[in-house]
């Protein structure tokens, strides 16, 4: 019988956790990740709530666990194309896009420096650009550059190649597919920020200095486009009056009908970013209900009691540009029964989480809810879904869930192999 | 803030739900509606507060301010509502309940809005006429309905007293309802020291209505204001027609010259105004229907209360036009068509205090009150 391993689809915090827990219990695991790096959405965060520690530090530990564990293998820039059930196991077809940089890369940046072409910086949500030969972010794992072939045209590739003295640039790489046998499958496909420009009244993409909460994470992150100094995008001004618009697209039948769970905490956390950098900043949080479940309530109390932070019940339903690149929001102050217009330097839309499978479904026979979340009870034996593939969750819950899925997939793998010995 | 004991009227909540406000309970008070509404004032904007008042059965709160009638059911709120709570449609249901609340006698309000009562209500004027003519032994009732003898025999003269009485009844009942509404509003917000004099408020309201100034501010259903305007102007045209006709008919009555139906050439002024208004009415009401159908995926098709009114107006226009055409074709079917037309006319006007027809009077009253109290 061919060597089997547990397949984990998605190398974000859920997938990494499931993979490492199973591998450290002695099972072979293969991670398939569509990005050129592991870490998923967590890699884009500045800080975790409620402890406010930087996520890269947790990710770094996971990267080390992978490096030290021969049982874990991973494929970046890869996708699961087909899965066929065979007895108790699965035959999986995986496609791999060319990276054009092989594992001789030492991360010296010479190719990027020599590269004449640019591409939009998707890791920073389009705020800024990178060279067409780039490292997704400074602590990316694997620490290996990528060439974006769509942007690197004409002699661009050749210039990158000439600059590399390690022979790491391989322009002849071709897309390829390979097959593997999986004893169990963990679906850890995660989430995307909801495309909030679909809510036309909120001004995203139409009004300057309206940003999403994930963009705010990048603005505040030391490895972000502004080096961690929060500056508003249009003119680099220090934002001293900032509004957070809660439920931007969430709890809305026309968009995401569910509560995205993390946005209230994210806005509270981002309020602390702003107050740390600009102690005199005035922050307004406009909400329908503040939802800070369980012990997160304490974090809410902490931010609520900060000076210059105010909370107003009422959904922002109009966002317009104002003089000097400022932004005006309109809402009804529900507790006072007044419709008010307020002008800010910058407005942050607390956009919700959309299941990644909505855009890129996995080739498995899975039932989805009307909102596109995986229905766990519809999964065939040996297939498990974790974290935000099933419902909007925070990192802590994703990790708990992934650990549980690791145990289930181990049990499934043992059954496939002929029962527990 | 002063304390206040709320007295939820659960029967009222049920009434609103049954009147087409099924989505009422979905509202979670986010107030998106109050922001996207272009006709709502900044101070105590609607319809968010009306939604919670209706959910909690706070009937008095809803009926003592003009806001429910300042809403034109643009459905901008319904389009953006994140919960499918359809505030515009709920307010329409609240308005229906308020018409019933202020009208008398109550049983008529109940009956007019019951589908089962449609046929008896339509038949009522005919039955009255037939019984009446039979009692006076003025010839065969059946022949009167089906044949040209109905009009030619002179029984036609009974129609005018009957319609006249119905009109007086409707006007009295509407005036009573509207004044009760005015008193309720005044109790909620006294007009003492008005922000605007009554005369000026009435003038501005008329100007507003004629120009559909507020209705035009709707965004999602912009087309509705045009359709509504066509219907309104055609009604005004038909009113002018009726008044002109009356000026000609009344002298004949006094001359006891009943047997000769007054006949004039086709090109007389009032006939032209009538025909043009009729055509505009049909176009306008067909547009109203198509706008409703277009908006249905979001707002729903509307309730019996809406469609009774729309169908009556459409029927009125169509039977009116056909009566004229068939009469010109000189076929006896014209008389049958005319009988149908008169039944619809009777329905629309005699039952006006209880149907959606009353909306124009309550809305105009609310608009005047709102101006006097600085709400508009």
Tell me what you see in this structure:
The complex is a heterodimer of chains A (421) and B (376). With 421 residues, chain A is an alpha/beta fold. Chain A is 22% helix and 25% strand. Chain A has three domains: 173 residues, FAD/NAD(P)-binding domain (3-Layer(bba) Sandwich), CATH 3.50.50; 54 residues, no CATH class; 157 residues, FAD/NAD(P)-binding domain (3-Layer(bba) Sandwich), CATH 3.50.50.60. In chain A, α1 packs across α8 and α5 packs parallel to α6. The longest helix of chain A has 22 residues. The model of chain A has no long low-confidence stretch (mean pLDDT 95). Chain B has two domains: 92 residues, Orthogonal Bundle (Fumarate Reductase Iron-sulfur Protein, Chain B, domain 2), CATH 1.10.1060.10; 267 residues, no CATH class. Classes of the chains: A alpha/beta (421), B mainly alpha (376).
The low-confidence runs of chain A, each spanning 5 or more residues with pLDDT under 50, are: none
Could you report the average pLDDT of chain A, rounded to the nearest whole number? Answer: 95
Radius of gyration of chain A: 23 Å
Number of separate domains of chain B: 2
Largest sheet, strands/sense/barrel of chain B: none
| Succession of helices and strands of chain A | EHEHEEEHEEEEHEEEHEHEHEEEEEEEH
The count of β-strands of chain B is 0
Broad CATH class of the largest domain in chain A: Alpha Beta
Work out the number of β strands of chain A: 21
Proportion of β residues of chain B? under 5%
Could you estimate the helical fraction of the residues of chain B in percent? Answer: 55-70%
Shape assignment of chain B: globular
Helix count from the secondary structure assignment of chain A: 8
Oligomeric form of this entry?
heterodimer
Number of domains of chain A: 3
CATH homologous superfamily heading of the largest domain in chain A: FAD/NAD(P)-binding domain
Known CATH architecture of the largest domain in chain A = 3-Layer(bba) Sandwich
Mean pLDDT across every amino acid position of chain B: 88
């Amino acid at each position: 019988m061919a060597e089997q391993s547990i397949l984990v689809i998605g190398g974000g915090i859920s997938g990494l956790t499931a993979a490492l827990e199973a591998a450290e219990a002695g099972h072979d695991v293969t991670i398939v990740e569509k990005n050129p790096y592991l870490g998923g959405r967590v890699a884009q965060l500045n800080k975790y709530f409620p402890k406010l520690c930087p996520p890269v530090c947790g990710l770094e530990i996971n990267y080390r666990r992978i490096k030290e564990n021969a049982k874990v293998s991973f494929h970046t820039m890869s996708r699961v194309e087909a899965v066929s059930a065979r007895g108790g196991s699965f035959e999986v077809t995986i496609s791999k896009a060319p990276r054009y940089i092989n594992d001789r890369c030492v991360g010296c940046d010479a190719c990027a420096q020599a590269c004449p072409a640019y591409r939009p910086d998707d890791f920073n949500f389009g705020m800024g650009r990178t060279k067409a030969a780039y490292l997704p972010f400074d602590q990316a794992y694997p620490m290996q550059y990528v060439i974006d072939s769509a942007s690197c045209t004409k002699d661009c590739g050749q210039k990158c190649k000439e600059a590399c003295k390690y022979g790491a640039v391989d322009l002849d790489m071709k897309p390829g597919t390979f097959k593997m046998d999986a004893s169990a499958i963990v679906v850890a496909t995660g989430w995307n920020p909801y495309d909030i420009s679909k809510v036309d009244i909120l001004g995203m993409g139409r009004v300057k200095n309206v940003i999403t909460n994930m963009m705010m994470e990048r603005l505040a992150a030391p490895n972000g486009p502004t080096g961690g100094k929060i500056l508003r995008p249009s003119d680099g001004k220090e934002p001293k009056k900032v509004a957070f618009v809660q439920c931007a697209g969430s709890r809305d039948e026309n968009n995401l009908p569910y509560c995205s769970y993390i946005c209230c905490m994210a806005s509270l956390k981002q309020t602390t970013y702003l107050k740390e950098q600009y102690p005199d900043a005035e922050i307004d949080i406009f909400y329908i209900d503040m939802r800070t479940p369980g012990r997160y309530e304490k974090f809410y109390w902490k931010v609520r009691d900060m000076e210059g932070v105010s909370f107003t019940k009422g959904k922002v339903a109009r966002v317009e540009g104002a003089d000097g690149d400022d932004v005006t929001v309109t809402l009804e102050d529900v507790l006072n029964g007044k419709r008010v217009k307020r002008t800010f330097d910058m407005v942050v839309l607390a956009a919700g989480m959309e299941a990644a499978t909505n855009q890129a479904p996995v080739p498995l026979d899975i039932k989805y809810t009307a909102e596109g979340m995986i229905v766990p009870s519809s999964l065939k034996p040996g297939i498990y879904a974790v974290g935000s593939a099933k419902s909007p969750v925070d990192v802590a819950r994703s990790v708990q869930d992934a650990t549980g899925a690791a145990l289930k997939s181990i049990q499934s793998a043992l059954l496939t192999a002929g029962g527990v010995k | 803030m002063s304390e206040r004991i709320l007295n939820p009227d659960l029967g009222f909540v049920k009434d609103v739900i049954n009147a087409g406000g099924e989505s009422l309970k979905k509202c979670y008070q986010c107030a998106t509606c109050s922001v996207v509404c272009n006709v709502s004032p900044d101070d105590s904007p609607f319809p968010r507060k009306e939604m919670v008042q209706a959910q909690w059965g706070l009937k008095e709160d809803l009926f003592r301010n003009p806001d429910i009638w300042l809403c034109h059911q643009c459905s901008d709120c319904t389009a953006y509502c994140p919960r499918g709570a359809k505030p515009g449609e709920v307010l329409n249901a609240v308005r229906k309940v308020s018409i019933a609340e202020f009208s008398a006698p109550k049983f008529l309000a109940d009956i007019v809005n019951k589908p089962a009562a449609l046929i008896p209500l339509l038949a009522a004027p005919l039955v009255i006429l037939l019984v009446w003519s039979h009692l006076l032994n003025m010839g065969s009732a059946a022949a009167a309905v089906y044949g040209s003898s109905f009009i030619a025999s002179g029984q036609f003269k009974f129609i005018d007293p009957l319609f006249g009485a119905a009109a007086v009844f409707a006007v009295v009942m509407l005036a009573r309802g509207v004044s009760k509404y005015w008193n309720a509003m005044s109790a909620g917000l006294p007009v003492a020291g008005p922000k605007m004099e009554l005369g000026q408020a009435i003038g501005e309201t008329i100007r507003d209505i004629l120009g559909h100034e507020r209705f035009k501010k709707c965004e999602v259903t912009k087309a509705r204001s045009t359709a509504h305007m066509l219907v309104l102007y055609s009604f005004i045209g038909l009113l002018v027609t009726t008044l002109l006709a009356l000026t000609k008919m009344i002298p004949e009555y006094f001359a006891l010259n009943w047997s000769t139906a007054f006949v004039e050439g086709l090109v007389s002024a009032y006939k032209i105004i009538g025909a043009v208004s009729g055509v505009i009415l049909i176009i306008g009401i067909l547009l109203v229907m198509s706008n409703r159908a277009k908006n249905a995926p979001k707002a729903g098709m509307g309730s019996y209360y809406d469609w009774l009114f729309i169908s009556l107006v459409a029927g009125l226009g169509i039977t009116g036009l056909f009566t004229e055409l068939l009469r010109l074709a000189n076929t006896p079917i014209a008389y049958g068509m005319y009988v149908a037309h008169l039944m619809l006319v009777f329905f629309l006007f005699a039952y006006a205090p209880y149907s959606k027809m009353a909306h124009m009077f309550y809305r105009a009253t609310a608009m005047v009150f709102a101006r006097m109290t600085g709400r508009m």
